[in-house]
Structure formats: C-alpha cells, structure tokens
Amino acid sequence: MAARRILALGMVAAALTACASNGAGGRLGRGLADAATQPLEDLNLRRDPIPAVLGEALANPYSQRGMETCMAIALQVRHLNEALGPDQDEPPPPRAGLSQQAVEALADAAVDAVRNETTDFIPLRGWVRELSGAERHSRRVQAAIQAGRARRAFLKGVGMRQNCAPPAAPSWFMPRPRNRINLRWPWG
User: Fold this and answer.
1) Does residue 78 register a pLDDT over 50?
2) Which tens digit of pLDDT belongs to each residue from 99-129?
3) Are 2 and 121 in contact (CB under 8 A)?
4) Which of 12, 70, 155, 180 is most enclosed, with most CB atoms within 10 A?
5) Quick check: helix, strand or coil at residue 164?
6) In sequence order, which residues have a C-beta less than 8 Å from that of residue 46 and are 6 or more positions away?
7) What pTM was computed for the model?
C-alpha cells in the first residue's frame, strides 16, 4: 500500500517537474531526492557534511584572526552567505507570479507527501534516530548554523567599526568618506 502511494506521488512529482520549466523543477528534484533518502539519514547511513565555514564558526564564532581588512571580512561573509543563505538585512527576492507560486506550492506539497511516507516507514523513528546517532548529528548541524549566523552578524559589526562597505557590513550601512589627505599635527 505504501509503495503504491510513493509510486503515485513520484508520478505526480514527475508531472510537476515537467510542468515547472520556470526554475522550480530543479528544486523539486532535489527536494524529492532528499525526501526519498530521509530513512538513510534517520538510520545514520547518510550524513550531509557541515560546511567548513560553519565548522570554523562553531569552533570560535568571535575570532578576529585574519579579519584586519574589509576584503577579508567581505570574503568571509560571502562564504557564510553561501552556507546559510541571505542574511536578514538583505532585500527579499522579487515576488513570483501566481502561476510560479502555484507550481512551487504543488512541488512543496509533493515533497512533503513523499517525506511523510518515507519517514512513516520507520517505526519508533525518534528512538531510531537517537540510537543511530542521527539526532546528535542533527543537533550539531543546528548548532553550526546558529554559530554561523552569530559569526556573520559579528563580522558585519566589525566591518561597520572598520568603515567597510557591504557585504562586510550590513546592506544599509553607508561608509563614511575617507580623507585622502592625512593631516598630521606638528605637535602630535
């Protein structure tokens, strides 16, 4: 019975993928692949690695080593954005049209249905995740994400203090113009 449901959902997802020529198809395919392999993650047979930049943030989110220049800060913030997605100070992406929103909603519903079917396959899933170590890995991933967000916010604050332009500072920050003439007082 469950196999028939998964097959039917897979066919719906394939139809959605064919219809979603406007960019949602790739997201749907990745979402379905992740949903279908969820039992492997629950059994701790497959793990998504924590990106190195988040591992470094987890080890020391407030480190200033190597962050002396605006370029270094901007590069670190860009790496964090790649791992975490855009920061809250970034403008939201343009809103999609109604047809795009409908396709995305259908794709999300198909992925959720497949995920529900595959996770219901494992009895006592919470215990299995705890005993297999998958829950511990999930908590470590969440801690790394929190540390990455804290590091990005910290670095943007450091960037503001150093009068850096975005992305080394929040997107709304306007650096003060720098004096091109360095005046030195004769007595100091």
Assistant:
1) yes
2) 777 777 777 777 777 666 666 666 676 777 7
3) yes
4) 155
5) coil
6) 37, 40
7) 0.65
Which pairs from 32-40 meet CB under 8 Å and 24+ separation? 32/110, 32/111, 32/114, 34/111, 34/115, 35/111, 35/112, 35/114, 35/115, 35/118, 36/114, 36/118, 38/115, 38/118, 38/119, 39/118, 39/119, 39/121, 39/122
Neighbours of 69 (CB within 10 A): 12
Collapse the DSSP code of 18 into the 3-class scheme (helix H, G, I; strand E, B; otherwise coil) and give the result. Answer: helix
Find the DSSP H helices in the chain: 2-19, 24-36, 38-42, 52-59, 70-84, 98-120, 125-132, 134-161
- Running DSSP on this structure, what letter comes out for residue 169? S
Judge whether 156 and 169 are in contact, CB under 8 Å: yes
DSSP state of 45: S
Q: What angle do CA 90, 146, 168 make, to 5 degrees?
A: 40
Q: 50 with 140: CB under 8 angstroms? A: yes
